C-alpha cells in the first residue's frame, strides 16, 4: 500500500486540494484574501485557490506527523524573517490560518481533536 511519504507532495497535493474543493470540505473565510501566511512573508498568497492547497498540505502533515497542534504546524509552515542587514531569525507561520483550516477539516470529519494531545 502506498503511504503519503512515498508520494512526492507536488504530485499528491493538487489532486487532494481539488477533491477538498469538490467535496466542499473546506472553504476560505472572507478574510483569506487579505491575510499573509506568516510574519516572515512580505505579501499574501497570490494563487486564487491557495486555501485549498494549504488545507491539503495540512491534512497530509497531520497524517504524516500524527497528533499535532497548531503550534507545531505553525513551526512547520514558518520561515526566516528578512531583517535587512541583521541576521535572519526563524519565525512561525500564521496560527490563525492553520487553526481555521484544522477546524474546517474537523467539522468535515477528516481529522479528529484529542484533548491534551496536541
TrEMBL record:
This is 30S ribosomal protein S19e. InterPro entries: Ribosomal_eS19, Ribosomal_eS19_CS, WH-like_DNA-bd_sf, WH_DNA-bd_sf. GO terms for cellular component: cytosolic small ribosomal subunit. Keywords: Ribonucleoprotein, Ribosomal protein. PANTHER family: 40S RIBOSOMAL PROTEIN S19 (PTHR11710:SF0). GO terms for biological process: ribosomal small subunit assembly; translation. One of its GO terms (molecular function) is structural constituent of ribosome. Belongs to the eukaryotic ribosomal protein eS19 family.
